[in-house]
Backbone:
């Protein structure tokens, strides 16, 4: 079977288009947005196990994380293949303490409208250092978080979760909670 010059041109165009699409997809995923699968139920009711979320990886290159942001990060001493999804509770310079079923930031009780239960346990008063963030799950009875492994550093944060896109009936934008 002989290939005509027109068919050769078409094949080359298809190969170029596929290569460009793959390069664009790689750049978008590597530097801008990346999908993640929620592995556990520690963010209930906000995020459910097996939800697929989109994470904005570019945002924190231009601004610092805010209290209330839901972030994806590698836990301290963790394997780079394992990531957690939690909410930022404490910011650099904050003093933080868990007591009496609540979180206290700079000695003021934190109002957390997304919680369905009180915060169990107790921590000692601690002050976060430069580039340290205190993170907690929304399902406080079932969350391995900064109460267990301590604060996380900015460099361990992959990005901010902005969207739940799967399953479709759970699709929603993840808005920032203002305190």
Residues:
């Amino acid at each position: 079977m002989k290939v005509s010059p027109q068919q050769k041109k078409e094949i080359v165009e298809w190969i170029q288009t596929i290569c460009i699409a793959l390069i664009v997809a790689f750049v978008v995923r590597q530097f801008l947005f990346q999908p993640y699968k929620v592995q556990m139920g520690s963010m209930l009711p906000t995020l459910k196990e097996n939800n697929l979320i989109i994470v904005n990886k570019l945002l924190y290159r231009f601004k610092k994380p805010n209290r209330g942001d839901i972030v994806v990060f590698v836990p301290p001493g963790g394997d780079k293949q394992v990531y957690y999804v939690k909410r930022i509770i404490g910011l650099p310079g904050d003093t933080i303490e868990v007591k009496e079923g609540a979180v206290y930031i700079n000695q003021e009780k934190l109002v957390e409208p997304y919680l369905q239960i009180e915060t169990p346990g107790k921590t000692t008063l601690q002050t976060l250092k430069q580039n340290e963030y205190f993170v907690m799950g929304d399902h406080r009875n079932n969350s391995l978080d900064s109460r267990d492994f301590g604060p996380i550093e900015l460099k361990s944060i992959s990005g901010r979760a902005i969207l739940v896109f799967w399953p479709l009936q759970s699709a929603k934008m993840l808005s920032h909670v203002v305190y």
Summary: The domain at 35-173 is CATH 2.10.109.10 (Umud Fragment, subunit A). Residues 45 and 138 are 7 Å apart (CA to CA).
